[in-house]
Amino acid sequence: MRQVAILGIGQTKIDEHWELSLREIGGVAAFAAMQDAGVDNADALFVGNMLSPLISGQNQLGAFFSDWIGLWQKESVKVEAACASGGAALRAGLMAVAAGDVESALVVGIEKMTDKSGHDITAALATAADADYEVEQGVSFVGLNALIMRRYMHEYGWKHADFAPFSINAHANAMHNPFARLHEKITVKDYVAARMVAEPINLLDASPIGDGAAAALLVPASLIPLTNHRVIRIIGSASATDTIAIHSRKDPLWLSAAEKSARKAYNQAGVTRDEIDFFELHDAFSIMSVLSLEACGFAARGEGPRLGLEGKIDPDGKIPITTRGGLKARGHPVGATGMYQIVETVQQLRGDADLTQVPGARIGMAQNIGGSGATVITHILKAS
Amino acid sequence: MRQVAILGIGQTKIDEHWELSLREIGGVAAFAAMQDAGVDNADALFVGNMLSPLISGQNQLGAFFSDWIGLWQKESVKVEAACASGGAALRAGLMAVAAGDVESALVVGIEKMTDKSGHDITAALATAADADYEVEQGVSFVGLNALIMRRYMHEYGWKHADFAPFSINAHANAMHNPFARLHEKITVKDYVAARMVAEPINLLDASPIGDGAAAALLVPASLIPLTNHRVIRIIGSASATDTIAIHSRKDPLWLSAAEKSARKAYNQAGVTRDEIDFFELHDAFSIMSVLSLEACGFAARGEGPRLGLEGKIDPDGKIPITTRGGLKARGHPVGATGMYQIVETVQQLRGDADLTQVPGARIGMAQNIGGSGATVITHILKAS
Fold it and tell me: How far is B295 from chain A (nearest CA, A)?
């Protein structure tokens, strides 16, 4: 299995891009990644997307995008794992390069969500949950996360305000990310006073949707020294699943797929969690930050909120998270999110993270979650 | 890149399975493939599906199925390339085993289509075409294929009845396939008299949709001699794309992605087209059989219908096609079709094809097409 590295990255600002079509948004990120890599072609294209059939009436995004961006006749396919679609597409590209089937792979995460009403989007996002046993009961995706957060607070005795640092940190970091959807610094007072969505999840616990695309160009690591690029290798990549319905889990407060995929990624990378310099986690809701940190070994069970309260998640803390704004403030264009995490991890490892640069960052981890922890994909990247 | 072989296959009958849910249909095929392989687990699951978000309100089919069939915590993901989703999922599984990332991969193609009305299905299938520039004009998927067939007849002077042998052969072969949707022998008279759908495509030019799933278990080829199974290796696997909209093609009568992927697969396999003993092609419409045969080199441009008229496509002909009924009579549960083709190719290579066995078959080719030739995936399998 060949070692694989990231030669170029690209992204669009996450926003309501009513002026850009589905293909145009993806094209912007794809071209940016190719330009950053200094190439004008790729052997194959892997697209991460969740909602285009439901929102844009468009399937077959592989051929759709390779046509649009001029990758004539190249292999191209879409990979879908709900909100983990971006990470899943990255793994598909990684396998193709690692196996030696192609010499370069372009991976694009893309989502266009704001063309539909909030009601339609809520229904579309619910397709990540179990249609027969969860959605059938009328529960929305935020509702499922609210059940988890309420149980967590009950079980371990935390108050809602104890989760504030996760949102405050994300919003503070996004201030320095021009591609972020939200540029609004928030305080504990704002957090506590925010409008309720599904108790106990309020508006400042939940990530905003948006239109956006993020991309990376993968090549064999052995190729990079021939270019002028810094070598950012993918040293760990692992995916694991859990039950799709939360009620089927032995412990709904433990992300077993996150634990499994992180452990596998640590082993592949030959690193311990203490060697991870920063962690781009999947904070779709603040409770998810807590559960991910615990499952990946950064906090003991039930102790996740303490990392926030003690300032350990800030860019100069012990385990910086959501350093470019995270899902909470950079935004969550669902099928694109996993690739935004990768782009941001590369920015940190290149030393290009502006005022939220993690000092001396050499090893970064990104974790992309589909559904309520049903699909979890962990990547570890290293600058060398 | 490790050589990969198919250890087990499984399938359901294609039908209106109103008694089985989406997960149940996929489970039947998955368990059958594992049972055939003599294993009760797999390291990863790759699901090919096109329409479940639109028809069943269910995304994230990877976690959904690994949960249902008990592949606890294993990697699992969905791959989509319209009607080529099955072949695309097979390639994803192949890459994972070839790269050495996993020691076994279960690939399941699944589609449940008959829970919705014909109008809904027509709209859902149109998502394989270009939403902005084709579907926006009101053209359906069969309409697009009708445009191609009409142009082909005009360009090369063939009459509609000249295409009859493709449907007749498919229906005759399906008589001996218990998993086929249609068990009705047809004649030229039936073909000519069939009800018109979109001129010149009539009901006997078009493949029937259906509910169904087909699966295969992949392992490193080096493992098979340790079992009692015949070694069926995947010796060629290639995917290529064309423009998604037909009007963008220089020549709408030439499947350039089929030519490209077949040529690449021949090269990988180290075989010429003359060494292909049979060809499971993608006869969604009879015109597609003709175009595939030409693009893959079995007939000169404009000469495809002659192969049918001269009896060369029958099981004992020069290049047998659709030996188990093809899309036309076995049925076309869109995202599952590519895996049905693989299952049937393995049946032939094992010598298990009953009365439609191709004598002495050792090398078989399967070609799965997404959209009107926008994604084409070719696999070559060999028994040794």
Answer: 14
Instruction: Write the CA distances from B124 to A57, A82, B163, B284, integer angstroms.
Output: 8, 19, 27, 16
CB A253 within 8 A of CB A151: yes
The stretch B97-122 carries a mean pLDDT of 96
Relative orientation angle of helices A164-174 and A286-295, to the nearest 10 degrees: 100
Are residues A95 and B100, on separate chains, in Cβ contact within 8 Å?
no
- Rounded to whole angstroms, the Cα distance separating B75 from B45 reads 6
The pairing of strands B75-80 and B105-111 is unpaired
Quickly count: other Cβ atoms within 10 Å of residue B199's Cβ: 11
**Which of A72, A77, A116, A251 best probes binding to B when mutated, by most B CB atoms within 10 angstroms?**
A77
Output the CA–CA distances (angstroms, integers) from residue B83 to B110, B136, B370, in the order listed: 11, 20, 4
Residue of chain A whose Cα is closest to the Cα of B71 = A241
Q: What is the pLDDT of residue A223?
A: 86
Peptide bond into B200 cis (omega under 30): yes
Reduced to 3 states (helix: H, G, I; strand: E, B; else coil), residue B88 is helix
Helix, strand or coil, per DSSP, at residue A281 = coil
Q: Give the pLDDT score at A110.
A: 98
Check if B92 contacts A (Cβ < 8 Å): yes
A131 chain-B contacts, CB cut-off 8 A: 56-58
CB contact A122 to B (< 8 Å): no
Helix (H) or strand (E) holding A307: helix A304-309
Assign 3-state DSSP to chain B and report helix, strand, coil percentages, each to 5: 40, 20, 40
**Burial class of residue B116 (count of CB atoms within 10 Å of its CB; 0-12, 13-18, 19+):** middle
pLDDT, averaged across chain B: 97
Q: What is the pTM of this model?
A: 0.98
ipTM over 0.95: yes
Q: How many residues does chain B have?
A: 384
**Contact assignment for A57 to B98 by CB distance below 8 Å:** no
Q: Which amino acid is located at B163 in the chain?
A: F
Contacts of B265 (CB under 8 A, 6+ apart): B236, B237, B238, B365, B378, B379, B380
Question: Residue A91 burial (CB < 10 Å; 0-12/13-18/19+)?
Answer: buried
User: For the residues of B287-350, what is the DSSP string, one character each?
Assistant: HHHHHHHHHTTSS-TT-HHHHHHTTTTSTTSSS-BSTT-IIIII---GGGHHHHHHHHHHHHHH
Whole-angstrom CA distances from A366 to A239, A280, A381, B106 are 12, 5, 8, 27
A257: nearest CA partner in chain B: B73
Residue B227 neighbours by CB under 8 Å, 6+ apart: B7, B38
Q: Which residues pair with A207 in a beta bridge?
A: none
Calpha distance A4→A279 (Å, rounded): 20
DSSP string, B179-216: T-S------HHHHHHSPEEETTEETTTBPP--BEEEEE
Residue by residue, DSSP assigns A313-339 as: TSTTSSS-BSTT-IIIII---GGGHHH
Q: Is A137 helix (H, G, I), strand (E, B) or coil?
A: helix
CA distance linking residue A158 with residue A364, whole number of Å? 29
What phi and psi values does residue B318 have, to the nearest 5 degrees?
-70, -45
Runs of H (alpha helix) within A19-130: 22-37, 52-55, 61-68, 85-99, 118-125
The mean pLDDT value for A156-175 works out to 98
Give residue-wise pLDDT tens across range A364-378. 999 999 999 999 999
Distance from CA of A187 to the nearest CA of B (A): 36
